[in-house]
Design goal:
The structure holds two protein chains of two kinds. By secondary structure, chain A is an all-alpha fold. Chain A contains 16 helices and two strands. The N terminus of chain A is likely disordered. Classes of the chains: A mainly alpha, B alpha+beta. At the A-B interface, helix 3, helix 5, helix 8, helix 9 and helix 10 of A face helix 2, helix 3, strand 7, strand 9 and strand 10 of B.
Chain lengths: ~600, ~350
Amino acid sequence: MSAVTGPISYHGPTPQPQRASSDNYLNHTRGVMSWAFTLDHKRIGLMYMIGILASFLLAGLFAIMVRTMLWHPLTAEAGASQGALNSAHDLYNHMFTLHGAVMVFMFIIPSVPAILGNFILPMQLGAKDVAFPRLNLLSFYCWVVGGVFFVYLLLSGVLHAMGFNVPGGYGLDTGWTFYTPYSDAKAQGSVVAATIGVFILGFSSILTGLNFIASIHMLRPRGMGWFKMPLFLWALYSTSLIQILATPVLAITVMLLCAERAIGIGIFDPARGGDPVLFQHFFWFYSHPAVYIMVLPSMGIISELIVAFSRKHIFGYSFIAMSSLAIALLSFFVWGHHMFISGQSAVTDAIFSLITFAVAIPSAVKVFNWLATLFRADIRLKVPMMYALGFIMLFTIGGLTGLFLGTLAVDVPLTNTYFIVAHFHYVMMGSTLFAFIGGMYYWWPKMFGKMYNETFAHVAFWFVFVGFNLTFFPQFIAGTKGMPRRYASYPVLSSDGRPTHFVTYHRLSTTGAYTMGTGLFLVLGTWIQSLRRGKQAPPNPWGANTLEWRCPSPPPHDNFTETPVADDPYDLSGWKYVSEEVGWVYDREQAAADVAAHVAH
Amino acid sequence: MLHAILAASDPTFWLPRGASTVSGDVDMLFNIVMWICIFFFVLVTVLLLLFVVMYRHRPGVKRSTAAEHSTLLELTWTLIPSIIVVFLYYYGFRQYMNMVIEPPNAYEITATGKMWQWSFTYPTGVETNELHVPVNVPVRVILQSNDVIHSLYIPAFRVKKDVVPGRFNRLWFQATDNGQYDIYCTDYCGTNHSTMRSTAVVESQADFDKWMKITIDTNNNLPPVQKGKKLYMTQGCAQCHTLDGTRLVGPSWKDMWGRTEQLESGPDIVVNAPYVTESILLPQAKIVKGYPPSMPPFQLKPADISALMEFMKSISSHTSAADMMPTTGPATQPAATEPALTGSTTQK
């Protein structure tokens, strides 16, 4: 270990956590206004948390609705009239669209950066706040205003169902991808409201990214060179680069779509001289990098969790850090793999296929480095670690199934079937959601100063893990068998009279969705229980060496009473577990002994 | 795990039975990718579980710290996956080119996607909703859309291509086994996307020729009302217009002919030959009040329009017997009236 050259590797004050005082960021000032106009990154993070979790609940209910409808194949042969069938199809189409749109734009993209990033990033930097606190509050209100448009979409759908006439269309039935010319010429949904909402949400994302980049450049403390930065910060940095470079393209795209829908300019609609495939290029130029906006911060969380609960230095720090940047860079050049069957030239397909395979490498490098960190470690299976291990397994499945889709000839039969649905849920949900929940448990004691119930949270984990796999693994099989995605109804018999078995896979999947839903409510239960009855959390309950653990739990308004000095964030020598109440404390003698043992080794 | 391995070795567990010249090679590639995936998944999972069990924290047990960096290891697990993906890329691309480059002299069929129905037009001019192809003959399918993007997917042939309005995408296949195979639309296209399904019928050349002859003969000899009814089904009119009086997207055809309607622009109009002809060719010209302007134009031959109108008359109570054409004999007369774009509105 090159960083450790002497018995004590710290250059400044000892990294002893600062003791809790009665004054913290939660009770520093009081009243609604003190929250609504707060510039404190922690309060903004908390407000984001409430809004984003509410969006997740909403989008999750849409998913449950979708899965419930798919329990029955809903075929015309069952005796339903064409009119009843049309209504059922419309309802399903609205549900899967709202599920996708709310999940992507309001939950997954902001989840890790806006909640955990906002809360943790300044503290990991040993700073009092982000670089631009006012911009941070503006980004929150952009998110809120964008969210209002999505609430309008939902309400307009409800009003229409109640028999009111909603001008400009109701709900949204275009799919979250807004493919033209359906979205600009045919769809009955309120595409204009949706695109304005996405446009405004985009600004929230851009401002957060801008703030994080400035913060990481300007606010790093003494001792934190670029390669002494926690990997969570590297991941957020890479994510922010994508956010500020790619999101404007989405903003332009949805504005063009909005203009086409509202005033009929001919950019995408072939009936007006436009090109619908151009929309797909524009859309995926943002939305593929957006996949990495969703998954890169999660990878950063996993690096933190693996180290803290393995009690061991991360393996291959620089490879993990650089792989984040490599993924961010390559993510801009793979968008065409969403359009292998759209009729783009075979040469274009070949180039995008090759670059797509190239992204697999840095992702694989990360997985192997995490595994190597576990080797000869001292593993504690606390709840955050369970989610981290779950992440590795699910991300491996999600990543490997990407190989099928990158291989051109195999992509042709599989694309746009449930295979795709399963693949991206393993990546977006199995990975991002697991890392998000793991990160929430990990930083929960810091955020609220309360511990959660370990047993209760373990039970919830198993519901989520088993439910997740039961939901999405059968979808791989249904997809290879040809079940197309976005189908409100599906055939029970194939053309040759043999059963398709789709109904079996859908029912397994629906059962899984209910199991996972139960698990997620249990997760919420553990958090509520912790707030109400949780034990007081010590400053450093996990013995991690990143700076956020050196301020009290919950942190005071200004985070640190004295500016901390950073060192290797993954050198855990010297941290000693005392008790549940005291947590881990830094012990100079222990540090000397640890280092001596290491040198001897 | 064992279950997954056993299941994976059964070729019918994953992909449906293949029935085209490319399906064998695609399936082999699928299996290669699958075994690579299974290998790495097992590797990662076994190591993960092994480490968790072996190195789980036990009070009092001190671990000697392991290395935290190894360039050799990093290079190994960068290079091995790189070699594997280059190999996958190469074979994927090579096989893809086999699927893209169509053999010369293929039999050409035009597939038209419209919300929410497929129609297939053969070189003989015959148009059907089911795809009929001869076995062991290369078939080229030219894809065109009347409205939004659709996607033609025949799982058993391992082919799929988007049907994009304003473009002429194409795909080809050569079916190897007689039988009936599913056709799906796989690009979301609105309300009834999920019922935009059809069947591909693969039969011997002799059977195919016989089917074609019968279809042509039937089409030529149908009485106008029957021909109109057939067009109602094959052209996709049924997607929006019912025959029993219930309203879908457009008006029901029951009792529509001869009725007086109010237009969105104000004046009244009688549903007669000029108006129906115009509404088929230029549907947006005059919209009846209360209906969305969502019908796409249909470029039908005059004889077909005429047959459709006969069918409309046959199900309307506003039709007098004198309006009807003779119910026997082929419908060869041209449309009764040229599309009179001024219509018969009462507007001044």
